[in-house]
């Protein structure tokens, strides 16, 4: 049925697969980190800090964020998506107001 050699072969394959999965996961995490643009000279680090599309301290409206997300311009869609993510994060970290 099963021999010692077959058990060793199964163990070797399992180890190879595990190592390959770890390497793949590591590569995925590195590629995700590399996709973040941290050039403060060229562009602001946060779309909320970008004053070119926003007048002064005024926050973008939901309609403008929605229009930006569905825009054909890739950079505008990216910035609108980042603003949406940041607003969602701010909303989720604030405690809910309880009205009695």
- Structural domains: how many: 2
Distance between the termini: 72 Å
Instruction: Give the integer mean of the pLDDT values.
Output: 76
SSE string, helix = H, strand = E? HHH
- Please report the total strand number as a whole number: 0
Structural class: mainly alpha
Rg over C-alpha atoms, rounded to the nearest angstrom: 24 Å
Please count the helical segments: 3
**How much strand content do the residues show?**
under 5%
Level of helix content?
Answer: 55-70%
Low-confidence segments: none
Main sheet makeup: none
Tell me the overall shape: elongated
Structural notes for this entry:
The protein has 100 residues and is an all-alpha fold. The protein has two domains: 1-36; 45-94. The chain contains three helices and no strands. Helix 2 packs across helix 3 (74-93). The longest helix has 31 residues, at 4-34. The mean pLDDT is 76.
